[in-house]
Amino acid sequence: MRLLPPIGALSLGTAFLGTAFLGTALLATGPALAATGVTITSYGHSALLISGGGASVLVNPFKAVACAAGLAEPRVSATVVLASSRLLDEGANGAKGKMLVDPGSYKLGGLKIEGIAGPHDRVGGRRFGQATLWRWRQGGLDIAHLGGTAARLSPSDKVMLGRPDVLIIGVGGGAKVYTGAEAAEVVRELKPRRVIPVQYVSGKTTPKDCDQGSLQPFLDAMAGTPVRRPGRTLSLPANLGEGMVIEVMR
Fold first, then answer.
1. Residues 6+ apart with CB under 8 A from 63
2. Domain annotation covers residue 244
3. In a domain, 128, yes or no
4. In which domain, by residue range, is 243 found?
């Protein structure tokens, strides 16, 4: 995976400094930098609305197809809409807001957002093409979204992602999502303070044309980590402390 440079020419020194500091630098400006914390609302699958710091970010809006079949589509308004790809189950353009899919550097609504390019699958993108991993700072929290990839993180990916306060990560397995064991490995590498697992089958019946499994293999792989079940809405303060907690949302 690689981070595509922002539009415009960069000197070698500027590019090096930008890469060196991105993992720990503040990724927001203006109101979104305020340490207000965030409120997260789950719409199922990998769609979450994150509000705080004067901005709102909707990630991975979907059409109710494949593994998202039977779910209510998140037709809501947000400052920014981030999608892992243009696949209908994680990048449907049905919400109101500026939609970003492609990797790059963006400044919108007081947010500075970084999109990191990488394979969607385990075969270099040859089956499902490329995906985008997202990182931004909102409400005083560094947030990373890895809800649409099954590829291992490269050393440069880990530098770019840094240590997020909140990590949203797919765990249900299948051709384009981490298995529970793969997701647990990524969590251990990034060491986030809060983990929100997404992209898994939560009901007793697997939808037609869905190759994902349940949440349990991920929880088994993360045995010993505290698990909370806040329901559909989760409020997080700007100061999360040092311990890791898995937040299983509905």
1. 73, 88, 89, 92, 94
2. yes
3. yes
4. 22-249
Confirm if 119 and 151 have CB atoms less than 8 A apart.
yes
What residue type is assigned to position 211 of the chain? D
Output the pLDDT for position 34. Answer: 77
- Give the distance from CA 181 to its chain's centroid: 18
CATH code, domain carrying 131: 3.60.15.10
Residues 6+ apart with CB under 8 A from 7: 104, 105
Residue 200 and residue 215 in contact, taking contact as beta carbons nearer than 8 Å: yes
What is d(CA 136, CA 105) in angstroms, rounded to the nearest whole number? 10
Q: Amino acid letter at 173?
A: G
What pLDDT shows up at residue 84?
93
pTM of this structure: 0.86
Q: What does the longest C-alpha to C-alpha distance in the chain come to? A: 54
Decide if 157 contacts 54 (C-beta within 8 A): no
Domain assignment present for residue 59? The answer is yes
Cα separation, 38 vs 236, whole angstroms: 5
The amino acid that residue 171 corresponds to is: V
Q: What tens digit of pLDDT does each residue of 68-107 get?
A: 888 899 889 999 999 999 887 888 888 889 999 999 999 9
176: region left, alpha or beta (phi > 0 left; psi from -120 to 50 alpha): alpha
Measured between alpha carbons, how far is 59 from 80 in angstroms, rounded to an integer?
8
How would you classify the pairing of strands 38-44 and 233-236? Answer: antiparallel
Residue 92, pLDDT score: 84
